[in-house]
Write a structure and sequence with these properties.
alpha+beta; Alpha-Beta Plaits; 4-stranded antiparallel β-sheet; 8 strands; 45% helix; elongated
Length: 318
Amino acid sequence: SADGGANLNLDSIPMGLPMSDPTAWATAMNNLGMAPMGMTGQPLLPDFDPALGMMTGIPPINPMMPGLGIVPPPIPPDMPAVKEIIHCKSCTLFPPNPHLPPPATRERPPGCKTVFVGGLPENGTEQIIMEVFEQCGEVIAIRKSKKNFCHIRFAEEFMVDKALYLSGYRIRLGSSTDKKDTGRLHVDFAQARDDLYEWECKQRMLAREERHRRRLEEERFRPPSPPPVVHYSDHECSIVAEKLKDDTKFLEAIQTLLTWIERGEVNRRTANNFYSMIQSANSHIRRLVNEKAAHEKEMEEAKEKFKLALSGILVQCE
């Protein structure tokens, strides 16, 4: 049994072997008649630390051991998958020789959804082409030539890759061996205006979405705009004139007045109103300047008074 084999494996390893000997497990398995090599001819566990297995008492896992039921390692993605015979209703596809290099293809056009299919049987009809290639995905259109080739347009780009998988297959209609009923498929990317147009539309849409996203991002960090200044009218003019006389609303009113003047609202009809508003602003500013000067004078007098008081205190302290 597998367990018995594992125990035997452990018991038969001579403990005098140095722990750092990487061939210890392979030697032991070889003594037991087990294959220490994997499917590819390489050691199955080249990086296995024999000291770890010794300390824990666990033998190395070998997928080739009978009874363990461990799945062999998967095929690496760069290795070609083995192609199989494909049976369709009206025809059969035989895979190409796996030792031959994969068929060459042209450079993939942007947004490619169309493939060129050459090497079709002379008696191949659109129904047979549809039968073979609808396995790859939804077919939008087939444009068949009088010769042995056609163009097939799919609904999505990823379906083209599935169609290219069929390149190199030999096709045989029914069970006939007639030359007109056989052919070797050659599938390649095709350049189509519809594909390019759709791809460009998609790119423009993505660019628009990106611009919109950036604009929203910029607007999020932009400081808020000041409230818009109302348009001039006699009613608004009277409100601004009242605000110019109010200390708490003067700042808002003077900004409105300056904006109206910049907009060119001053004309022969409104000149008197603007003159009175400018007079109000001028008198307000003059009053502010006078108050500032009075406060500065008070400050100077307070400084002098402070100096005299401080010098008197210092004299007395001394």
